[in-house]
Amino acid sequence: MDLIQGFFAHLLEKRLLVADDQDKGRFRAFLLATLKNFMANDWRHKTTQRRGGHVKTLTINADDFEQQYQESLSDTCTPELLFDRCRVDALLTNVVCEQRAD
Q1: Region 13-28 average pLDDT
Q2: What is the enclosing helix (H) or strand (E) of 68?
Q3: Which of 13, 10, 5, 14 is nearest to 41 (CA)?
Q4: CA distance 25 to 37
Q5: pLDDT tens across 27-74, in order?
Q6: At what angle do helices 27-47 and 3-13 cross, to 10 degrees?
Q7: Residue 87: how many CA atoms within 13 Å on its side-chain side?
Q8: Could you tell me the CA-to-CA distances from 46 to 3, 8, 52, 55, 59 in Å, in that order?
Q9: Could you read off the pLDDT of 69-96 as tens digits, one per residue?
Q10: Pick from 41, 8, 25: nearest CA to 17
């Protein structure tokens, strides 16, 4: 639904046209003020970032990781693979330390 259709749906749902009092001012001024408020609320709703935003939470269980790491050491693997595993271990350790610091 586009913005104008949404505005008129809002007018009808809230019965704002029935509540309009001619003593308070002109109908055109009423419509303009109502449209400006509706557009501001719509923009605010569309641009609001919710708590957590678009960030995924990554949970790392250190015990499970340590167990997997110890099991991987018993495997026969190439030096390159062992090097990659050590790099991953160092990276995950840094991530866990940074999360604890926050």
Answers
A1: 72
A2: helix 62-74
A3: 10
A4: 17
A5: 788 888 889 999 999 888 888 776 666 666 667 777 887 887 777 666
A6: 110
A7: 6
A8: 12, 19, 16, 18, 29
A9: 777 666 677 878 888 888 988 888 888 8
A10: 8
